[in-house]
Amino acid sequence: MSSTKTILLESSSSPMKSEVREVKIRSYQNRDFESCREIFTQGMEQLVGRATRVVLPKYCGVLVALSVLVILAAVKWTSWMLAYYVFFCVVLLALLYIYIYIECWRFIKECLATDLYNIEKTYMSGDGSHMWVAEFDGKVVGMVGLVVYNHKPGVAELQRMSVSPVCRRMGIAKKLLDELLQHAKEQRFDKLVLTTTSAQTPAIRLYKKWGFRLIDVFPYPQKILADLQYLCFGLEL
Question: How far apart are the first and last CA of the chain?
Answer without folding.
Answer: 19
